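Exercise 7b. Backbone tokens:
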């Protein structure tokens, strides 16, 4: 299946972006997922950043003042966002776009990497 949104990207495009210096950010992490992303993207495990669920709630659910939302959203500029199946990262990338921030959602998420 093909990504439906311009901010959804496949693994090859994600690899190119990470090679250019874009950050990898992960929801709901455990060590094996961090290790998988490190190996997949050829980066040190320390370079896989964790997404604070509070940041997601502020941006997606609009908790807080508008200026705070924009400030928090800006932390994700140009990041490749990864979750289990690509759904949460897609929703988050869309919410970030609504706040003027370009971020990328890895289509299929961790499950897509494992199946591909």
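Sequence design result:
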């Amino acid at each position: 299946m093909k990504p439906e949104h311009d901010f959804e990207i496949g693994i090859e495009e994600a690899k190119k972006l990470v090679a250019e210096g874009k950050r990898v950010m992960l929801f709901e992490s455990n060590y094996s997922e961090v290790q998988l992303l490190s190996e997949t993207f050829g980066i040190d495990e320390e370079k896989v950043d964790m997404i604070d669920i509070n940041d997601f709630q502020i941006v997606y659910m609009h908790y807080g003042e508008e200026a705070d939302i924009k400030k928090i959203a800006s932390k994700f500029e140009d990041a490749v966002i990864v979750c289990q199946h690509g759904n949460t990262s897609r929703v988050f990338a869309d919410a970030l776009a609504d706040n003027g921030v370009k971020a990328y959602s890895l289509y299929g998420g961790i499950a897509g990497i494992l199946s591909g």
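Instructor comment: The two ends are 13 Å apart (CA to CA). DSSP finds six helices and five strands in the chain.
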